[in-house]
Each structure stands twice: as C-alpha cells, then as structure tokens.
Design goal:
Layout: E1 17-22, E2 27-31, H1 33-39, H2 48-51, H3 60-70, E3 74-83, E4 92-104, E5 107-116, H4 118-122, H5 124-145, E6 151-155, E7 161-165, H6 168-172, H7 182-185, H8 193-205, E8 211-218, E9 224-236, E10 239-249, H9 251-265, H10 275-286, E11 293-301, E12 307-316, E13 330-332, H11 335-343, E14 347-350, H12 363-371, E15 376-384, E16 387-396, H13 405-442, E17 452-459, E18 469-476, E19 482-489, H14 494-512, H15 520-533, E20 540-550, E21 553-561, E22 567-569, E23 576-577, E24 598-602, E25 607-611, H16 623-636, H17 642-651, E26 660-667
Antiparallel strand pairs: 1-2, 1-5, 3-4, 4-5, 6-7, 6-10, 8-9, 9-10, 11-12, 11-16, 12-13, 14-15, 15-16, 17-26, 18-19, 19-20, 20-21, 21-24, 22-23, 22-25, 25-26
C-alpha cells in the first residue's frame, strides 16, 4: 500500500537527475534541473513512452510497469547512451538509472533517478570505482525513500546493526546496541518479544524481501508505544549484503484504528442472547488488545450498605492458565472496589507478580490471578441507566506492565459504549423472568389418573425476552372423565403470558361446569364468546380433548381451533395425526362460527401427544417437514416411559427458538 510521503520539490537542486511519473500510463509530472541538463527539455503531463522513443531507451516503459506491478525497486546498471545530447561539446553522454515505487500528491508512481556516467565510461578504471560507489549510495537512497524514518539503521547478514540516523537513545533513554540481545529485548513489551524475534528470523532465513513489524517499545518516559520497523534488503550479485531500515513511532495511528475497531465491535453485544453472553462479549472486546484478562461482576445490594458482586463473565488471552468455571461466586466488595463504584471512576491497583490484595476479587479469582502472575488490576464500574450495575476487573499478567493512562481511557470508553446494549439485555431478562414466573405459576402439575399415565412439559424458547403464550391444562371432571387442553396465544411478551392465564382460567370454568352432553366443540365455542364479550380479544389456537373410559380402553373426543393436530402413537401400528377434512378457525376470529367435535378410540398402550408449534416449526423450514420429523421421532421412541418420551421429543428439536408446551397421555396396559 503506497503512503503519501514524497514531496518531489526536495530534489530541485539535487545533482542527481530526478524525474517522477504518475499512474499506469507513466505521465511525467516532475523533473529537476539535473534531469533537464541530462535529457533536455521534456514536457510535463506526457506519457514517458511518448517522450523517450529513442532505440537506446527501449525497455524503460516495461521497467516502469514492473515497478508499479510488484512495488519493487529496480536498477538499470548497464550504461545507457544519449546521442547528440548535452552542451554540444560531446557527442555522447552516458547514464545509469533506477526506478523506485513511491506515492506523492499525484498518486502512485515511480521515482526515476539517473546518474551521468559519461566520465566513467571515458575512463574505465575511474568509471568502475565511481559507478560502484554511486550505485551503493543510490541503493541506500532508494531504501530510505521507501520508509518513513524516525531513526535509520543498517543490519549485516550476521545480525550486527549500525545506527545511521541517531534516535534510539532519545526514544528509549538507553544507548544503541549493535545486536538484538537480551538487554535490547528488555525494552520491548514482554508480549511482543517472541513475535519480533520470529518475524526477524523469518526475514533472515527466507528470500530477501521487505521486513516490516509493529511492536511495543518502552520509551524514556516509561510508557510503551507502538513503533513500526521496516527493513529493505540490499542484494548484490544475488547475495544479501545488508539491510537498510527505518523505525517510526505509530502509536497515535495504531490507537486510533484500535479505538474505531473496538467501538464498532460493541454492536456484537446487542446480538447476545442473555446477560451472561452480553457481558462475556463486553469482556472479549478488550482482551487481548488492551488487557490480558477481564472479569465482569454483577453488582447487588444486600442491605446495611453492603454491596456484593457475582462473577457473570470472564475471558483471558492465550497462554494463561485456564479460567475457573462460572459458579455464581459472590463476594463482598472491598474498600477500593466500593470507592470505584461510588465515584464511578476507574481504579488502578499495581502489585508484585501474583501478590493479589485481599478483598479485591473472590478467592477463586484471586487464586487464578496469582497463578497467572498478575501485576495489576484495573477496576472499572459499568453505569447502566444511571446506576452502577456491574464492575469490570481488567488484569495484566506474566510480566505485562500495568496499563497507561491512554489504555485505561480507552478501556473506559469501550465499556461505556456497550452500556446501552447491556442495559437493554438486562431489562429484557427481567421481563422474561417475570413472564416465566407468571407462566409457570399457571401451568400446574397434571393430576394422577387411575389406569393411565399423564406427563406435561413446558420449555421456554432461547430468545432473550420472548416468553410466549404457550400453555397446557389437564384436570378431572366431576363425572370422572379427563380433559386435556393445549393452546398458544399470539405474542412473545408479558401481555401474551397474561392473556394465556385468562384463557386457561375461563376454559377451566366452562369445562368444569358443563352439563351432560356438552362437547369439546361446545366448550371452545363458549370460550370464544366469553373472550369476545369480556374484551380479551387475542388471536389464539387450542386443542381441547375430553377422555372417558370405554371398556379396557379410552374414548377421545376433541375439537381443534386452528392448532397443530394431535399425534396418536398406537401401541402397534404407524404414528398418525388426528386431522379432519374440515378445519375450525382459531379463537377470537369468528366466535359465531360453528365448531366440530371429532372422536377416536385409544387402546391400552396407545399414546396421545398434544403440543404447541415450537415443537415442529423451524425458521426457513416447511411445517410439514417438522410434522414428519415429530411423527418419525415419536414413532421410534414409542416404547419409552412417558416422561422419557417427552424429554426425548424436546431434545430432538433442531432450533428451539420458540416456547414449547407438551402433553402426553397413555392408557395403562393391564397385566397379562
């Protein structure tokens, strides 16, 4: 990638002929006085291929094309000849030139440097000596042009380094060392030493190519800053003879790019399923770029001014000991943490490696920090909706220095940016929890039925706050018959759960007080009319079943209000759905429309399964696929005990995003 860093006017008074081209057509956009003296007037803005048409200059455009294509400098060391050029006293002038990729205000282009070698050609011995010296100087000059320099150095193939443009001692406060020994490496950030060594060894061992690596260096002020080292190999006659390089401070650019990326990554928090995932995503934002490990504690008040924290998420960089599992560890905050929470400002604790102050984190976390050789802890309160809700503890480990002021500021900014998403996640979790409490309070245990087995299940979906209106009910009527109902109220919120409770209560009342001869269709019709009259108009589906004993088996009568059909698993025979040619509409759609009752017999050992659509519906999949899957799965597991069968069916759902209610009934098989 070219970086705009060349101002061609610096070459106006240079003794070397300098020209600059731009673009793939190689337009001449600059030439200095020495270039005009050597080549004569060549107009600007014209492609080089049109300006240099002489036969002896053949191949110039091809060389420019190659330099732009692979951004590698090239030299033409065979002397070229200009006929009839110069001041007229000499008929021929000779030169060599080089082409280097550069970027300027004109865009990507090529810097052409030409050296007049006329005198050298006329005097072979003198020409050999001067051309070699000038060529070496030109190669070094090209290498320096290709790197933005703060300090410039050379390195021999054996690793010995020489500082050409001093700057190391000014940056680090330490004298320059000619080898990358332990004293030299001690100034490099501990986490970056291995990567720097590995990258340099790769450059030395492989084909000569540009070496470039960014790492953190301890400056004279004591802080670590990111620097970029670039080295260009100098090859003569196919042999690497030295490296010419430059080192530049890139801390400000690196931190700006990191900040932009981390703040963009906070969007991932909004996609988290629950608080644990959301806080884990927040901790993952800052590891390993800003800290080695991060743990988040959810805060709560326990009375008498005591504040406790519960570990809800933690993460660490590679190479550290395994983190202890999340077990809901709770501890009472110590003075430092309490002050950080009260002042809503970060607090930095530094200490000898592994010597964790007591009371700062739970004992289990403190043991892990000691094993990881922690040297600092930064406590950062997370204020959500105006209240300190969580506390993040960021640790540096295994010789890593404590964070600087800039690191702490960026840590705080990233966590603050995520607070809105965290607040939304916590609010959705509270809503979900309240709905689940209401829903489970209404879904009572099914009754014991003499001569039969009955099992019920309710499984909330895996969406963050979407508790729906799925419900079931089972109770015995005064005449000894059994009623089973499965239903689903539209919506996934607290309102849906509340409406579900109203439907369930009204249906219980209607069914229990029904007169003899009252059918399941009559019960659903009465429920529909009551919901309309009382203003509980919410779209809902349901299947209502009445089971009575018939000889050694049972007789089922049911009515279906737009709900997925019941599944019958005969003790001996294929599974089948209880459907009919005529389908009744859901509840709260057309209360006056007539409903139908259907009938079937159940033999001993048969299984009747009622369920809500979460058991068979998968996003992007046709409903019939889910129904076929349920019939196949249930058919193969029909011999399992009823409770095991229900658990097995729930476990086989490919994507349990929606709530699932499930009822299963099985007449006992009489003893032989």
């Amino acid at each position: 990638m070219f970086e705009p860093q060349l101002t061609p006017e610096v070459f106006d008074r240079a003794i070397v002929a300098i020209a600059l081209t731009a673009g793939r057509e190689h337009r001449l956009v600059y030439r200095n006085d020495a270039f005009r003296d050597l080549f004569g007037p060549r107009p600007l803005g014209v492609p080089v291929g049109e300006l240099f048409t002489e036969p002896q200059e053949e191949g110039l455009v091809d060389t420019l094309d190659l330099v732009l294509a692979d951004t590698t400098a090239r030299q033409v060391t065979t002397p070229r000849t200009l006929e009839g050029s110069g001041d007229g006293e000499r008929e021929h002038r000779h030169f060599v030139y080089s082409c280097s990729p550069v970027a300027s205000r004109f865009g990507p282009g090529v810097l052409v440097a030409a050296i007049d070698t006329t005198g050298q050609v006329h005097s072979a011995q003198r020409a050999q000596r001067l051309s070699t010296e000038r060529l070496h100087a030109l190669q070094r000059y090209e290498a320096l042009v290709s790197a933005v320099s703060q300090l410039v150095w050379t390195a021999q193939p054996d690793g010995v380094m020489t500082e050409l443009v001093p700057g190391w001692e000014r940056l680090t406060g330490h004298p320059w060392r000619d080898t990358m020994d332990e004293a030299w490496m001690s100034l490099v950030h501990p986490n970056d030493r291995a990567g720097l060594r590995e990258r340099w060894m790769e450059a030395e061992a492989g084909e000569p190519a540009m070496f470039e690596h960014t790492y953190r260096l301890r400056f004279a002020s004591g802080e670590y800053r990111h620097i970029t080292a670039r080295g260009v190999p100098i090859v003569r006659e196919g042999e690497l003879v030295e490296w010419v390089g430059a080192t530049a401070d890139v801390e400000d650019r690196w931190r700006t790019r990191l900040r932009e990326r981390l703040l963009a990554d906070t969007m991932a928090v909004t996609e988290s399923v629950g608080p644990e995932d959301a806080f884990a995503a927040v901790a993952g934002l800052v590891v390993p770029e800003l800290t080695d490990a991060c743990t988040v504690f959810l805060l709560s008040e326990r009375g008498h001014g005591a504040t406790t924290g519960t570990r809800i998420a933690s993460t660490s960089r590679a190479g550290l000991p395994p983190l202890p599992p999340l077990r809901g560890q709770t501890f009472r905050l110590g003075p430092v943490a309490l002050r950080a929470v009260a002042d809503r400002t970060p607090a930095l604790l530094t200490f000898p490696p592994g010597e964790i102050p007591s009371g700062v984190v739970p004992e289990e976390s403190a043991r892990w920090l000691a094993a990881a050789g922690a040297t600092s802890l930064t406590l950062l309160p997370l204020v959500i909706d105006g209240t300190p809700t969580a506390l993040a503890a960021a640790a540096t480990c295994q010789g890593s220095p404590p964070p600087g002021r800039g690191d702490i500021d960026l840590l705080q900014e990233v966590l603050q940016r995520a607070q809105g998403a965290l607040g939304q996640t916590l609010e959705l979790q509270r809503t979900r929890h309240a709905a689940l409490i209401l829903q489970r309070a209404l879904l009572t245990e099914p009754p014991a039925v003499p001569g039969a087995r009955l099992a019920a299940r309710y499984q909330p979906g895996n969406r963050t706050a979407e508790v729906g209106g799925d419900w079931y009910d089972a109770f015995l009527l005064p005449d000894g018959s059994l009623t089973l109902t499965i239903g689903d109220v539209a919506g996934h919120d607290l309102t849906a759960a509340t409406t579900m409770g109203q439907f369930r209560s009204m249906l219980r009342s209607v069914a229990y007080n029904a007169t003899p001869g009252h059918t399941p269709a009559d019960t659903l019709s009465a429920l529909d009319r009551a919901a309309e009259g009382l203003g509980i108009g919410s779209f809902a589906t349901a299947v209502h079943v009445q089971l009575t004993r018939s000889g050694r088996g049972w007789f089922a009568a049911w009515s279906n209000a737009g709900h997925p059909p019941p599944l019958l698993l005969p003790a001996d025979g294929p599974a089948r759905y209880l459907t009919s040619d005529l389908t009744d509409v859901p509840l709260c759609v057309a209360p006056a429309e007539e409903r139908r009752t259907h009938r079937a017999g159940l033999a001993a050992g048969d299984t009747l399964i009622l369920y809500t659509d979460g058991l068979v519906e998968v996003p992007g999949e046709h409903l019939t696929t889910g129904l076929d899957r349920l019939a196949h799965t249930a058919g193969r597991a029909r011999d399992r005990p009823l409770d095991d069968l229900c658990d097995h069916l729930l476990a086989q759902v490919p994507d349990a995003r929606d709530d699932i209610a499930l009822l299963a009934f099985r007449p006992d098989v009489p003893p032989a």
